[in-house]
Design brief:
Helix content is 42%, strand content 5%. It is mainly alpha-helical.
């Protein structure tokens, strides 16, 4: 085993600690504190504190239990959708499987109509097949009037069986042709016997039982009352086989509403205390009590071994392996109880200082976190996989004290843990001790950390992309800086320790593409038209426990997509619109009132088309018709949930996104592609259609219509025009128009007006910082063989135009700052002189461009400003041939002179 494998082996046990609390820890003190917080007067009409029995009241908002909606059925119902008990739900499901979909209300109404039917009187028994014989055929089976899809053939209708025959007409021996034998028996009439009391039974009555039944029916029916029930039920099987079996309500069940914790209290008193506290805590925070899942958990907990003292440190792997948590309901309630207990245990164990705990429940976080993977089972952020103490403390500080994070917390913890593991391996391979204490970190550790970051891979072994590595590096560097400023974690750490990931992870150049190949995230107009043509065929299912039909949610989905297309707001801003978002001015023009949540600018107004306002008015009409189905607090929102138990007051973006993805991926055929040109007749990618893409389409549509960039920026409500420029692509026509506008305003470094031809602007020049180079040698080398050593400020081949003016001004300010620093540090006079000359050259160039622009009419200046913005947008997507990255001076290696060791 080499050094790296040994280091990885040492770290591996830290990465898997399944239980939130150490099983060896005694939680008796914590359970005693919970027992003191339990209220004996909690819901006195339902909770019996002496017997530890909870009896749910049907219809109570705090309990998920109702009485079955089937008439005269007293069973408990735990479903809000159908309102049926388990027995009635089974009969209802069997019916829908046989005949197709039917609402529970329609099924109940049909069953009520059939309850008063005298089924036995409608039965006509099957007679003997012999001509002129009126005796009943032999057998116990219920006669079938007709064969239906839900009514299979019985024994006397199957092949290779005898036809229906009475007791007197039974062949004694094997016959060659049964039909000829039946025809020959017409001359042998048989007197009917004294039949069984069951109208369709062909056996003789047995007088010994005293009920008038045959021997076989007497085994099934014990008394006359049972005979009537048997006749009715068997007749229903024959005459109404398609779902209406046993239409009478089942006998009354009294235990369906009760939840007894007494058995669990006798066997595991600690578990019973934790469960009762969790139920009361659930009720305090507004979550209803689910009797079904709680019963399943109690049933499973009674089988827990005696060594299990708490839900927090119970060995879940052993419980699942021993099939003591095999029920889905029991496992789901187990996770809920553990999550509630963690929210109380962590503050109790740390005296309120969450930084001391390596397990932080989601309910105590102020930031949103991704609850996927193993974190869901314990409902908390687990920092224990991070093997280094200083990195673990730094990550906790970053997540707890920052109001927002750029990535989900669980993803950040996973990547920091893997980065630390690779960091330990790299330190061991370089014979560098991996410090567990922050005071031992040095500059070499920072280099090793950057090297480990550059070599990180995904969980499947594929390499991470460089942009994501740089993003992760900037996040970790920000965590280090934040910990230095806001804690004493790095108080004794040298300042040379830092994460210099720039040298290890290069910037990826955007591939140069031709103008015809430029694509953005905007959805093509022909695809949007097709989607709205197919929108009436979309199927939008209502959420669980909805108080309105599916048509209402489909209307909300239609209005949501219309607003995304016509208003161009962000998906979350569209979903969170208020009921009063539409207003009209004195001229009758419609305006949409919305809030820019990302930019923290509220009360924004956007002019919208009359068609969009009409779509909103249509949704207002449908929405207001069901205002009675809105719980308190939902009347103010444009898209309420219509659910009484929903935590959210309005439909969230995630709900709309799921319906959009299901509709596009599963309901629609291929999306139309371009009609002509490259990629003609190739279907448009379905994954490119998502909610945020409609915002790009909104911007692209107006940019193609020639809307000025400043106006477009205002419509998008961006602070910077550069942000708006990222939302649309520039077509060939706009490129040519922009080049035509600025090519005649080109200047050299002496400030002399030097107009450039269009072909020279596009082809006979190479892009350099702040302009173009017309020197032939440099052009042939693609801009990487400049004879002037890239000193464009003093080169006569350098050309610049007004589209570079903002960058020139920023560069001039930076050079002035550099000059002041050079003078203060008393550097070589030749270096200071070169900087002054470059400042003078760029100052002359900027003044010449500004003077030329000042002489132009205002309309022409606006046109040139628009063209300059277009060209800057193009340059932002394709880097120049010459890039001058900033190299930290500490990373440079000095070549040793003669007589020195390398």
């Amino acid at each position: 085993m080499n050094v790296e494998q040994a280091a990885a082996t040492d770290v591996a046990p830290i990465l898997s600690r399944p239980e939130p609390v150490d099983p060896a820890e005694d939680l008796a003190g914590f359970q005693h504190m919970l027992a003191q917080e339990i209220r004996d007067d909690w819901r006195p009409e339902e909770w019996d504190s002496k017997a530890w029995v909870f009896t749910g009241i049907p219809g109570h908002l705090g309990t998920l239990v109702n009485q079955c909606s089937f008439p005269d059925c007293h069973g408990p119902s735990f479903t809000r959708r159908s309102g049926l008990c388990n027995v009635c739900t089974g009969r209802y499901i069997r019916h829908t499987q046989r005949l197709g979909a039917m609402t529970a209300e329609a099924w109940i109404e049909r069953a009520i109509q059939l309850q008063d039917t005298n089924w036995a009187s409608l039965v006509v028994p099957i007679l003997c097949s012999v001509t002129n014989c009126t005796n009943r055929s032999k057998g116990l089976g219920v006669p079938l009037m007709t064969t239906t899809e839900g009514n299979p053939k019985r024994w006397h209708q199957q092949k290779d069986r005898l036809p229906p025959l009475c007791l007197g007409h039974q062949p004694r021996h094997t016959v060659e042709d049964i039909n000829d034998w039946i025809a020959s028996q017409a001359a042998n009439p048989v007197a009917p016997p004294e039949y069984c009391a069951v109208p369709w039974c062909g056996y003789k009555r047995h007088h010994a039982n005293g009920t008038g039944l045959c021997r076989l029916h007497a085994k099934r029916i014990q008394n006359p009352g049972g005979l009537a029930l048997h006749l009715e039920r068997e007749a229903v099987v024959s005459l109404e086989p398609d779902g209406y079996r046993e239409i009478h309500a089942p006998p009354t069940r009294t235990g369906g509403y009760e939840l007894s914790l007494a058995p669990l209290r006798r066997r595991h008193p600690g578990l019973a205390t934790e469960l009762l506290w969790s139920l009361q805590h659930q009720d305090r925070i507004g979550f209803p009590i689910n009797i079904t899942t709680t019963k399943a958990l109690i049933k499973s907990a009674l089988e827990f071994p005696q060594a299990t003292k708490s839900f927090l440190n119970a060995d879940t792997r052993a419980l699942v392996k021993g099939r003591m948590l095999c029920s889905v309901n029991a496992w789901s309630m187990f996770r809920v109880v553990r999550a509630r207990l963690l929210e109380r245990y962590v503050p109790w164990a740390t005296n309120g200082d969450l930084l001391q705990s390596d397990l932080i429940p989601f309910g105590l976080l102020m930031t949103s976190s991704n609850r996927s993977g193993s974190a869901r089972s314990m409902a908390a952020l687990d920092f224990r996989p991070i093997p280094l103490d200083w990195a673990r403390h730094m990550t906790k500080l970053w997540i707890l004290e920052r109001s927002t994070t750029e990535t989900s917390s669980t993803t950040l913890i996973t990547h920091v843990a893997r980065l630390c593991t690779d960091f330990i391996v790299h330190c061991s391979s370089r014979r560098l001790p991996p410090p567990t204490n922050a005071s031992g970190l040095s500059r070499e550790h920072g280099k090793v950390l950057a090297h480990a970051l550059a070599g990180m891979t995904r969980l499947d072994g594929k390499p991470l992309t460089n942009p994501y590595k740089r993003f992760l590096g900037s996040t970790v560097a920000g965590m280090i800086d934040y910990a230095r400023k806001n804690s004493d974690l790095f108080e004794h750490t040298t300042l040379s320790f830092s994460l210099d990931y720039d040298l290890q992870i290069p910037l990826e150049e955007a591939p140069g593409t031709d103008a015809d190949d430029e694509t953005g995230r905007a959805i093509p107009e022909q695809v949007i038209e097709y989607l709205f043509e197919q929108l009436p065929t979309a199927r939008v299912a209502s959420p669980t426990s909805a108080a309105v039909p599916n048509d209402v949610y489909k209307a909300a989905f239609t209005c949501y997509l219309t607003l995304l297309r016509d208003a161009g707001r962000r998906p979350n801003e569209t979903a969170s619109l208020q009921r009063g978002c539409l207003s009209y001015d004195s001229n009758g023009e419609a305006t949409l009132l919305w809030h820019n949540d990302k930019g923290r600018r509220r009360g924004r107004r956007l002019p919208i088309w009359a068609e969009t306002a009409h779509a909103l008015e249509t949704w207002f009409t449908i929405r207001d018709q069901h205002i009675s189905g809105m719980p308190a607090g939902q009347q103010d929102w444009l898209f309420p949930t219509f659910r009484s138990r929903a935590r959210d007051k309005h439909l969230k973006t995630a709900w709309f996104n799921r319906r959009l993805r299901d509709w596009i991926d599963n309901r629609l055929p291929d999306l139309p592609g371009p009609a002509n040109g490259p990629g003609a007749e190739i279907p448009f990618t379905k994954t490119a259609v998502f909610a945020y893409a409609f915002r790009h389409s909104y911007c692209q549509r107006r940019a193609d219509a020639g809307v000025a960039q400043e106006t477009l920026r205002r419509l998008m409500d961006h602070r910077s025009a550069d942000t708006t420029a990222r939302y649309y692509t520039v077509t060939n026509a706009r490129k040519r128009k922009a080049i035509e506008s600025v090519k005649r305003l080109s200047f050299d470094t002496h400030g002399t007006h030097a107009p450039v031809a269009e072909e020279l602007y596009s082809m006979a020049a190479v892009a350099v910082p702040f302009g173009k180079c017309t020197e032939q040698t440099n052009i042939k080398a693609g801009g990487r063989a400049c004879p002037a050593r890239f000193q464009c400020g003093g080169c006569t081949f350098f050309r610049s135009d007004p589209s570079h003016l903002p960058d020139l001004k920023a560069h001039l300010d930076r050079m002035k700052e550099d000059l002041a620093w050079q003078i203060a540090q008393n550097l070589r006079p030749s270096l200071i002189t070169d900087t002054k000359n470059e400042i003078e050259a760029f100052t002359i160039l900027i003044q010449a461009q500004e003077a030329r622009l000042a002489d132009l009419p205002s309309s022409e200046r606006e046109s040139i400003a628009e063209a300059s913005a277009v060209l800057r947008r193009l340059r932002a997507s394709v880097p120049t041939a010459v890039e001058k990255p900033f190299i930290p001076i500490g990373s440079l290696r000095i070549r040793p002179g003669n007589g020195q060791d390398s």
